[in-house]
Design a protein that fits this description.
Its EC number is 5.3.1.9. By secondary structure, this protein is an alpha/beta fold. The chain is built from 20 helices and 13 strands. The chain binds 6-O-phosphono-beta-D-fructofuranose.
Length: 545
């Protein structure tokens, strides 16, 4: 049995197959099969995936699925769902899927069914959310809470802020919800400057409750509150915590009765459907949050049970492997055509890049193949007027996911033209068509363009895209969409034989920053023992601050 990925039969077959496919045109694939667009699609959990505009044949797809099988994707998936300790470097199970199991389900961790505990926390969150939303959770002076400020970073921020924005249509609009993440004091100052402390509730969200940025922001928020309310007892009415670290929460001064817990088997970037989503629940209510979880669960079930040929996360993951490992595509763009999804790509950056940005295999061997891609994007149509030029005519291959909805949440007619939503969706369809089929020199010349200018107007096409369509952006669909990408990342990590659930790569910078902080203290300024660049930069900062 070969030990490395690149020695597997499916990998070798794909390498040979790529030689045949690398110059194959999407235009020809469509010309040869008039039903290609009707055939190459799949559906699950309310999401429709058209993957026909990819540089693949039926044989490519078979080989990619062979690779998934040979790398044990199904076995690894089942091990994750069963609660095995697949996060080997931290000796933890990986069970974010347990967070969205319905009441009554069973998921065993170390001989204990964790689902009742999950629902116990959800119920407490629900009671708390109802009290705040209904105005019965009063602040220290008796005023009802009108402002929620979530303090957290990374997985304790990106998921909540993304989902809050995505579900704003369903939000209780008289609650102001804000997110403070950056240790840059500007973030806290700007997000609180127009808020009345007596009406403001802070949620300190941190799995570890030790993260420098979050602890600094939480302390400064507490000082901001106490400067106005002038009584330490106010903290209990204005601060709640979401964490796995009860001791640290208590030490900070938050009553553990106002703490919502989760577990070490929930990774930070997979935690937005745990109590980390409290800000989202406060905004959309317990029922809306329940719908979100139901959407996650529906996609979990699809991923767990659908045959690989029609399995959305598997298909998207393996298409990504095809471009990443055989076409050397360095990045992947995610382009949601919905303003509410403005933070979706930013959220996916952490989900994907922190999970699969790894250089060694599960057993610590250096990889000899590419792993995680650079994930980026922003909502259409704005991106079209910024970076699409490079996707269409640049020299890099950038596979893209387009995400659109058949119904808008804000139907808006234009006074003398088509409605906004038709204008928006026409762009989704037009972009993927243009990227796939381009525009030939002959077509440009036939338009009477001056031959010297014609090359500038040629589009080579053959740029691959996926299109995801859903009927409407609802909490349920959002849950399914997030779970789709979670599992896509899982499948790619399984193929590349990585631990997708640790993040040692963020540690070194944290440690070095911890060493530099005292060196910046005014009045102390100890001798510096870094490299000459770092020393010079620190000295310049000290001199000029
Ligand atoms: O960036 C590293 C990281 O550990 C992320 O994985 C995590 O989401 C983030 O920091 C925040 O961690 P915590 O929730 O413990 O404050």
């Amino acid at each position: 049995m070969p030990t490395t990925l690149t020695e597997l039969p499916a990998w070798t077959a794909l390498t040979d197959h790529h030689r045949m496919m690398k110059d194959t045109l999407l235009a020809d694939l469509f010309a040869d099969d008039s039903r290609r667009g009707e055939r190459l699609n799949a559906e699950g959990a309310g999401l429709y995936l058209d993957y026909s505009k990819n540089r693949v044949t039926d044989e490519t797809l078979e080989l990619l699925l062979d690779l998934a099988r040979e790398t044990g994707v199904e076995k690894k998936r089942d091990a994750m769902f069963a609660g095995e300790r697949i996060n080997v470097t931290e000796n933890r199970a990986v069970l974010h899927t347990a967070l969205r199991q319905p009441r009554g389900a069973t998921v065993m961790v170390d001989g204990e069914n964790v689902v009742p505990a999950v629902h116990e926390v959800l119920d407490r969150m629900g009671t708390f959310a109802d009290a705040v939303r209904g105005g019965t959770w009063a602040g220290f002076t008796g005023k009802p809470i009108k402002n929620i400020v979530n303090i957290g970073i990374g997985g304790s921020d990106l998921g909540p802020v993304m989902a809050y924005e995505a579900l704003k249509h369903y939000a209780q609009r008289d609650l102001t919800v804000r997110f403070v993440s950056n240790v840059d004091g500007t973030d806290l100052v700007e997000k609180t400057r127009d808020l009345d402390p007596a009406e403001t509730l802070f949620i300190v969200s941190s799995k570890t409750f030790t993260t420098q940025e979050t602890m600094a922001n939480a302390s400064s928020a507490r000082a901001w509150l106490l400067a106005a309310l002038k009584n330490d007892a106010a903290v209990a009415r204005h601060f709640v915590a979401v964490s796995t670290n009860a001791d640290a929460v208590q030490k900070f001064g938050i009553d553990t009765a106002n703490m919502f817990g989760f577990w070490d088997w929930v990774g930070g970037r997979y935690s937005m459907d745990s109590a980390i989503g409290l800000s989202v629940m406060l905004s959309v209510g317990p029922d809306g949050f329940g719908e979100l979880l139901a959407g996650f669960h529906e996609m979990d079930e699809h991923f767990r049970t659908a045959p690989l040929e029609g399995n959305l996360p598997v298909l998207m993951a393996m298409l990504g492997v095809w471009y990443n490992n055989f076409f050397d595509a360095q990045s992947h763009a995610v382009l949601p055509y919905d303003q509410y999804l403005q933070y979706f790509s930013a959220y996916l950056q952490q989900l994907d890049m922190e999970s699969n940005g790894k250089h060694v295999t599960l057993d610590g061997q250096a990889v000899d193949y590419q792993t995680g891609q650079v994930i980026w994007g922003q909502p259409g149509t704005n991106g079209q007027h910024a970076f699409y030029q490079l996707i269409h005519q640049g020299t890099k291959l950038i596979p893209c996911d387009f995400i659109g909805f058949c119904q808008t949440l804000n139907p808006l007619p234009t006074p003398d033209g088509p409605p906004h939503h038709d204008l928006l969706m026409a762009n989704v369809f037009a972009q993927t068509e243009a990227l796939a089929f381009g525009k030939s020199l002959d077509a440009v010349l036939a338009e009477g363009v001056d031959p010297s200018l014609a090359p500038h107007r040629v589009f080579d096409g053959n740029r691959p895209t996926n299109t995801l369509l859903a009927d409407k952006l609802t909490p349920r669909i959002l849950g399914a969409l997030i779970a789709l990408y979670e599992h896509k990342v899982f499948v790619q990590g399984a193929v590349w034989n990585l631990n997708s659930f640790d993040q040692w790569g963020v540690e070194l910078g944290k440690v070095l920053a911890g060493k530099i902080v005292p060196e910046l203290k005014v009045g102390e300024e100890p001798a510096l023992e870094h490299d000459s660049s770092t020393n010079t930069l620190i000295k310049r900062y000290r001199d000029r601050r």
